[in-house]
Amino acid sequence: MREVAALLLTEPALLPEATAQLVTALHLEAPDTGERLAELAALVADRPALAVTTAEAVRRRGYGQPEAPEHALAAARRLAAEDGLAPGLFAVAVTTVGAQLGWPAAWREVLHGLRRHPRPDVRDAARAVFTDPA
Fold first, then answer.
1. How far apart, in whole angstroms, are the C-alpha atoms of residue 7 and residue 128?
2. Can you tell me the distance from the alpha carbon of 18 to that of 62, in angstroms, rounded to the nearest whole number?
């Protein structure tokens, strides 16, 4: 998938298709998740609509309890520390893995921090995630 994405990235008009391929190749339980998501965020940094749709695809990728949630948590923390829209939205997307784990304190802390993010759209996205099962 990454090889296909690399080919697609040679044509700027194919950025949406390339990002879709990169998300498909993404494994949230992999140790390099944070690095890969940061690279993906950089690709869509000046494309806010694509950042939103890519973040949603990342969120869907997180379904199913990860075998190594600590890598996803580290990725969420790394992305949440950045000021940009795409990293912030990706952090919110990854943080939703916490729901599958029963919202441990570390995951709630990241989400609560995102609710104070410098970007209003990130704050809104974080506020739309509920940690109470009610």
1. 36
2. 19
- Taking only the tens place, the pLDDT of each residue in 8-65 is 888 999 999 999 999 999 988 899 999 999 999 999 999 999 999 999 999 998 877 6
**71-97 burial string, b = 16+ CB within 10 Å, else e?**
bbbebbbbbbebebbbbbbbbbbbbbb
- For the chain, the 3-state helix, strand and coil shares in percent, each to the nearest 5, are 65, 0, 35
Longest dimension (CA), the chain: 47
Residue whose token pair is 């998300």: 23
State whether residue 27 is helix, strand or coil. Answer: coil
**Helix (H, G, I), strand (E, B), or coil: what is residue 9?**
coil
Q: Is 102 left (phi over 0), alpha (psi -120 to 50) or beta?
A: left
pTM of the predicted model over 0.90: yes
Query: Pseudo-torsion of CA 54, 55, 61, 66, nearest 10°?
Result: 150
